[in-house]
Amino acid sequence: MTRKQWYLSGFVAFTCLASTAAVSGPIENYAPVTAQRLENPEPNNWMLYRRTYDGHGYSPLDQINTSNVKNLTPVWTFATGVVEGHEAPPIVNNGVMFVATPMGQVIALNAKTGDEYWRYKRQLPDDLFQLHPTSRGVGLWEDKLYLATTDDHVVALDAKTGKVVWDTKVQDYKKGQYMTLMPLIVDGKVIVGGSGGEFGVRGYIAAYDAKDGKELWRTFTIPGEGEPGHDTWQGDDWKNGGGSAWMTGNYDKETKTIYWGVGNAAPWPGETHPGDNLYTSSVLALDPSTGKIKTYHQYHQNDSWDWDEVDAPMLIDLQRDGRNIKSLVHPGRDAIFWVLERTPTKINYVAGWPFVSTDVWKGIEPESGKPIVDPAHKPVIGKRVEFCPSLWGGKDWPSAAYSQKTGLVYVPANENFCGGFTGEKVALKPGELWLGTKPEDIGLKTKPGADHFGELQAWDPTTGKKVWQHNFPKSQLFGSVTATAGDLIFVGGTNDRNFRAFNAKTGELLWEQKTNSGIMGMPVSYEIDGTQYIAIQSGWGVDAQRIQDALVTNNIGIEANVPQGGVIWVFALKK
């Protein structure tokens, strides 16, 4: 496979699919989802992307724990019927599981038995193309659920039957706009962000009325003329400056503030768009009622490495340096572990340190939190520049987790990967890739003598010290992490198809299970009739497969035939 073939391997030959079809009948006694339930979710459910608005990825269930996890066994599986990267968490509401898959599909299941209630299959356009043909889940509100589609629509489905209630076009997929995220639902608003920065679009976050799909507000992540931050762009660069917002944000219910991660500028080389380029590679604080930007923090300016920062920071209350801090914690794609302070009017820099090795940053300005760039490792036009980590960064979109019991942050990191490319200035053609370099010119390599690549890390955000680390000698780590009150850390993400559980305090590997494919999505935990379950989607593809092809196989010769095809796995303790 050539590098160009690798980079374009996100293309899937979509077939026209039938509309919603009920299988075993409607769901009886569905529990409507309210603001109160989302703000204070019952321990037995998993109704948001990371279970709670703060983004911790933590389950308070502890029936499965360090002493008995060795007895964890599959209790049911369900094949999704499609290939490519399965990245959505199974969403569970009082015994009903909703699973989103690639190819615009949502499946409703009995979360105890795996029996199917209904299945929605979207009819996707024949000419649809994007680099990430996936979905990261459905949002829940009242008696409906909401899907953001790869052909750039928001669709509301009846939760009991799967029938379409409304369907709203967001933007034009033919211009490179698409969506992959799980919508964030706040007080009856369906909030989404667009993908497509690699096609030279202008990023946005938008809200829709959950009842009828009417657009309520739209906030562009690249400020236009007369807006604060516009002066950080030159000329018309802002019109197609990137700044995709393609991951779900987190929400501070006390201050009514949404924190949303924003992607890198377009195209990649910073020379093509001089300036700091707000609000790319940043976190935005938004008013959910109006979409107004309250404040922001830019993780790094004038991005030139494809290091988007779309994974929203976790909202954690910390004791640090002798004071209480309402923090934003974000292990970044730029290889920096960020600790920020959120206030009603400002985001303050608190601390930052490399969690994997990097040659791009010389340090961080102590007052502003602005990283200091080493120009020798910043891509430019007409000259090949190498940098570490690679364009996938220290941690890509897969989410870290925070345990309220241990006080530690668990990071799915990648070490010993580097990259480089030669920047070029080319004209934008709507709907075509606009990277600022040729796909076949993207050089990816591993460090000489490297003895491992993936790292599951545990950090104390109050001290900045690493508590433990588990290395993966033959694989990247490309999967989200989930913590539980049973002092367990669950994660997939490796090319050996294993799903694993670690001791949250020590990092000891306690359990592993081979699955049908590789795992990129996040584990979830729920409880029915007194039994705790762990659920995950196994289904390799997209960036995990590209890393495997370009770095692991081509550079170091570790072959890993990771079969594609999605399967939902559900585990419980042996009776």
UniProtKB/TrEMBL annotation:
Cellular component aspect of the GO annotation: membrane
Needed cofactors: Ca(2+); pyrroloquinoline quinone
Signal peptide: 1-21
GO molecular function list: calcium ion binding; oxidoreductase activity, acting on CH-OH group of donors
Ranges for domain Pyrrolo-quinoline quinone repeat: 46-343, 477-534
Residue sites binding Ca(2+) per the record: 198, 264, 306
Highest rank taxon of the organism: Bacteria
Key words of the record: Calcium, Metal-binding, Oxidoreductase, PQQ, Signal
Note on cofactor: Binds 1 Ca(2+) ion per subunit. Binds 1 PQQ group per subunit.
Active site residues per record: 306 (proton acceptor)
Record CDD domains: PQQ_ADH_I (cd10277)
Binding positions (pyrroloquinoline quinone): 87, 136, 180
Homology family: Belongs to the bacterial PQQ dehydrogenase family.
Name assigned to this protein: Alcohol dehydrogenase (Cytochrome c)
